[in-house]
Every structure is written in structure tokens, then in C-alpha cells.
Design brief:
The protein is α/β, with parallel strands linked by helices and 394 residues long. It is built from 15 helices and 13 strands. The protein has 2 domains: 128 residues, Aspartate Aminotransferase, domain 1 (Alpha-Beta Complex), CATH 3.90.1150; 237 residues, Aspartate Aminotransferase, domain 2 (3-Layer(aba) Sandwich).
Length: 394
């Protein structure tokens, strides 16, 4: 323990001295375009995954309360023992219907879903082919599996082709990608990926956590954005979360064929050994999906807000990439500088977080602006005034 304690203390001191030590901001109000940070006061939030503004929606909150009152705090059990409530079945049926799959299975997070999916469905000799910029949960899920792992250059279809050809002898080949890449805000080339998977008899799996509720006319995600279906002619398996656009709580899911979901119920370790999703979260997610189906115009409002912010940042001289997603990264380079800039924005009442290593590679630190359908035009203009002040300060 003394050696471990010394190592921990030295690392923390290095982070402080380099200006890269992360601080947890204590929020004392619900997540919304305006919230309250302990010791700072009211701030405009431009760093949340609350893409559709549903995290504090009255109907979502009420559904969570009703779920808590009806079912209690939880089942104190895993699903296959006595942990499956009626609300779990309703949510899973609703997810499958919304995404156009035969079935779906909920997990306590999308991280949990990815780790419950990949190791369960591959064996020795199979191949997992993964984009180099994939989410950490996909990377860790692949490491937990018995499959051979192949990494291809980010969104490079020639590199993916080469990886598929190299894995030609594998009995099962899985191509796994984020739909929307969380740090860059760019979108996977699903049409080309789907075509390559068909050509090479591979399964296409998409983690669409940042695409669900954001892309596509109805918010169904990256596959809808490209006009693809969720079957053997498009995307085979989707994983995603309820913790972003769909209510902002927690929980994730796998959506795919009925055989896949039944197999996961039998073999997926996180499903077999983790308590069921809490009833309050489950019922809140059901209501969030209902609102999205009822009000698809929320997706349009999100896109309009993204364009207002992106165009405003460009007019101020910031370099921002084109993307239909709710993520607008501003590359800074140095982690300490990104954190300092984040602090200066916060002092002006604008909550934007600086990201650096190990979340992104060294030298690629950035401010990541995230938009919501709930932001008003006036709130966006106020944030742009702060960015203007930040730029003038140098």
C-alpha cells in the first residue's frame, strides 16, 4: 500500500503542476440549458448530452416518479431471477419498434451493453474489426473477448477493406463502429461500411449513443440519416443509451434479431450478473421515447441550434468542422490551455468543458461544445459573446 499510495500521490501532484488536473463541478439544480454550480451560481450549459432537452422535461420526470411509486427503488435482483418488471418489457418492445429491429435488451449503461454483447457472441478464431476512434467501451469489450482484434484507420474505408480481407478466414467477422464519434462529432460512413460487410459476410454493429435522437428525420440515428434499415441489408446490431438524448438518465440497450437477444439473455455476463435497470429510469426512458415519436420537430430544432452556434463560432474566427451532429469541437492542442479556457468561459457563466489526455490523444485537446434542442437563440448568442471575449483575450 505505501508504494501504491506514493504512486497515486505523485501522479496527482504532476497533474496539478501541469494544469491538467480535472475538477468535478457540483451541480445543485436539474440538468437544463440553465443550471446552478455550487460556488459559482447560474450558468448556461453547453457541455451536456441532453440533446433533445428531455433530462428535466416534466413528463419524463413524472414518469420516473410514477415508476418509483409503482415498482419501488428496484428489484434487488438480476433479470433472470426476479428482476424483470413489466416496464422492462414495455421499454424493450418500444426500443425494438422505434429502431426497426425484432427485439431489444436493456442494460444498466451502453458501456455495459457493449461489454455484454461483444465477448458473448464471438469465439476463438473470430475477428472484431474496430475503428481506431471508437469509444473506450468498444475497445474494452473487444479486449475482454476471445476474438482477434483488428484496428483500422479512422473512417478509412480502404483500411477497413484491408482488415476485412486479412480476416477472410475468420468464421465470424464483426465490424464495430461508433455512429457518431464523440470527440470529433463526425459520422461513420455507414453506407460504404454496410456494403463492405455484405461483400465480406461480416456483421455491422453500430454504437449510436451520440446519434440516437440526433440524426435522421425522426431521430432514429445514423442509419436513418443515411436511409439504411436495421437488418442484413443495413445495420445488423445497434447499441445505444438512454443517458443522452433519451431522457438523460442512465441505461443502455442492444437492438437486433430475436435470436441475438435470446442468446444474450442466456450468455451475456453483464446481463446475467447485474441488477435490472432501475424502474424510475426505465419508465422515464419510455416517456422520452414517446415524446420523441410525438415531437420529431425537436430534432429539427437541435439542428437549427447547431447551425447557429457553428456559424457564430466561425464568424469569430474559430475553426469548426462541418457535421450534422450535436457536437462542435474546437481544437486547442494543449490540455492545460483547454482547461484554462474552459475556466475562463465558466467565469463568464458558460459551462463548456476542456478535454485532454487520456480522453483524447496528446496534442489534440479541445473545447467540446454540445448543443440541445432546448437552447434558445438568445442563450446561444450570449455564449457567442463569451467566446468572442475569450478570443480577444488570446
Amino acid at each position: 500500500m505505501p508504494r501504491l499510495q506514493q504512486r497515486l500521490s505523485e501522479t496527482i501532484k504532476e497533474l496539478h503542476s501541469s494544469g491538467t488536473h480535472k475538477v468535478l463541478r457540483n451541480i445543485t439544480a436539474p440538468m437544463a440549458p440553465v443550471t446552478v454550480i455550487d460556488g459559482i451560481g447560474e450558468v448556461l450549459v453547453f457541455c451536456s448530452n441532453n440533446y433533445l432537452g428531455l433530462a428535466n422535461h416534466p413528463e419524463v420526470v413524472r414518469a420516473g416518479i410514477e415508476g418509483l411509486e409503482r415498482y419501488g427503488a428496484g428489484t434487488a435482483s438480476v433479470r433472470f431471477i426476479c428482476g424483470t418488471l413489466e416496464c422492462h418489457r414495455v421499454l424493450e418492445e418500444k426500443v425494438a419498434e422505434f429502431f426497426g429491429t425484432e427485439a431489444a435488451l436493456t442494460y444498466t449503461s451502453c458501456w455495459n451493453a457493449n461489454e455484454g454483447l461483444l465477448p458473448a457472441i464471438v469465439e476463438d478464431g473470430d475477428a472484431i474489426i474496430s475503428d481506431e476512434m471508437n469509444h473506450a467501451s468498444i475497445i474494452d469489450a473487444g479486449r475482454l473477448s476471445k476474438a482477434t482484434r483488428k484496428i483500422y484507420a479512422h473512417n478509412d474505408m480502404d483500411a477497413l477493406t484491408a482488415s476485412l480481407e486479412a480476416a477472410q478466414g475468420a468464421p465470424v467477422k464483426l465490424v464495430v463502429s461508433d455512429g457518431v464519434f464523440s470527440m470529433e462529432g463526425d459520422v461513420a460512413d455507414l453506407p460504404r461500411m454496410s456494403s463492405l460487410c455484405s461483400e465480406h459476410e461480416a456483421i455491422l454493429i453500430v454504437d449510436d449513443s451520440h446519434g440516437t435522437g440526433v440524426l435522421g428525420r425522426h431521430g432514429r440515428g445514423t442509419h436513418e440519416h443515411f436511409g439504411l434499415s436495421c437488418d442484413s441489408g443495413g445495420v445488423d446490431i445497434i447499441t445505444s443509451t438512454f443517458g443522452k438524448a433519451l431522457g438523460g438518465g442512465n441505461g443502455g440497450f442492444v437492438a437486433g434479431s430475436s435470436d441475438l437477444i435470446d442468446f444474450l439473455i442466456q450468455r451475456s455476463r453483464p446481463h446475467l450478473f447485474s441488477n435490472a435497470l432501475a424502474p424510475a429510469t426505465t419508465c422515464a426512458a419510455i416517456k422520452a421515447l414517446e415524446i420523441l415519436e410525438r415531437e420529431p420537430e425537436r430534432v429539427g430544432r437541435l439542428h437549427a441550434n447547431v447551425e447557429q452556434m457553428r456559424n457564430g463560432l466561425r464568424a469569430l474566427g474559430y475553426e469548426v468542422m462541418d457535421s450534422p451532429t450535436g457536437i462542435i469541437p474546437i481544437i486547442i492542442g494543449d490540455t492545460a490551455e483547454a482547461i484554462r479556457m474552459s475556466g475562463r468561459l465558466l467565469a463568464m457563466g458558460i459551462f463548456v468543458v476542456g478535454f485532454g489526455f487520456p480522453v483524447v490523444p496528446e496534442g489534440h485537446a479541445r473545447l467540446r461544445v454540445q448543443m440541445s434542442a432546448a437552447h434558445t437563440s438568445a442563450q446561444i448568442e450570449r455564449s457567442l459573446e463569451a467566446f468572442a471575449t475569450l478570443r480577444r483575450a488570446g
